[in-house]
Design goal:
By secondary structure, the protein is an all-alpha fold. It has 12 helices and no strands. Helix 3 crosses helix 10, helix 6 packs across helix 7 and helix 11 packs antiparallel against helix 12. It is globular, with a radius of gyration of 18 Å.
């Protein structure tokens, strides 16, 4: 077993899983290493570090013990970075599993086309309609992305990410927090990460004051907060 395989196994904490679940976990680990392997994040880090962090957040912070949810967390971005892999995943893990990944992937990625004017709203609607477990995976993804945001060199992307967090993901997480104890935990953690990020921006040099539309993005104020215009 390689160091990376051991790290993935540790993130799963799969020692107590049933044999068939462990077999699935090994298959998912192999797929993850293959499909994420050629990609890096805009922070310059190996892409696979992100889904591994999402698995750890699901298990350690949100109380997720379901093996299916955790292996889905590991592969949650594979169709985004390799949309042509859907058939491969269907053959290795079943069509149902491939469809589960497609449910948490933006449509323009699945269709292998550039993002269009209506795709942002379409993705929000798709995300808002998710069942509790897929939504939990997407919120864990947001938690890690928020923690890693300061490492992104793209200031416009960072401003857009925080806007999306304030106007969509946090309200959605709050509205769905009663669906399960895990979603309640996800809302608390995401809220804390957002507040911490904004507080650090108020007192640090790493500030994002303006978005691409030039509107005031004073740290600590969501974009729809009336105080911004005071």
């Amino acid at each position: 077993m390689t160091d990376l395989e051991r790290a993935i196994w540790s993130a799963f904490d799969a020692a107590g899983w049933e044999p068939d679940q462990q077999t699935t976990a090994r298959t998912c680990a192999a797929i993850a290493m293959t499909l994420y392997g050629r990609h890096t994040r805009d922070q310059g880090t190996p892409y696979i570090e992100h889904p591994m962090a999402v698995v750890a957040i699901l298990r350690e912070e949100l109380g997720v013990g379901c093996p299916t949810a955790l292996v889905t967390g590991l592969l949650h971005d594979v169709l985004e970075v390799n949309p042509g892999a859907r058939n491969l995943i269907g053959r290795r893990l079943g069509v149902k599993f491939a469809n589960r990944l497609a449910e948490i992937t933006p449509d323009h990625r699945l269709e292998q086309r550039a993002k269009g004017s209506g795709d942002r709203q379409a993705w929000r609607e798709k995300t808002a309609a998710l069942e509790p477990v897929p939504l939990l995976i997407r919120l864990a993804d947001r938690i890690h992305n928020t923690r890693d945001l300061a490492n992104s060199p793209d200031l416009v992307r960072r401003a857009r990410f925080l806007d999306d967090l304030a106007v969509f993901y946090l309200p959605l997480a709050e509205a769905r927090r009663t669906d399960s104890p895990q979603l309640s935990a996800a809302y608390r953690v995401l809220r804390h990460e957002y507040d911490t990020h904004q507080e650090e921006k108020r007192h640090g040099a790493d500030r994002v004051l303006h978005g691409p539309d030039g509107q005031d993005r004073r740290p600590g104020l969501p974009p729809n907060d009336p105080q911004r215009h005071s």
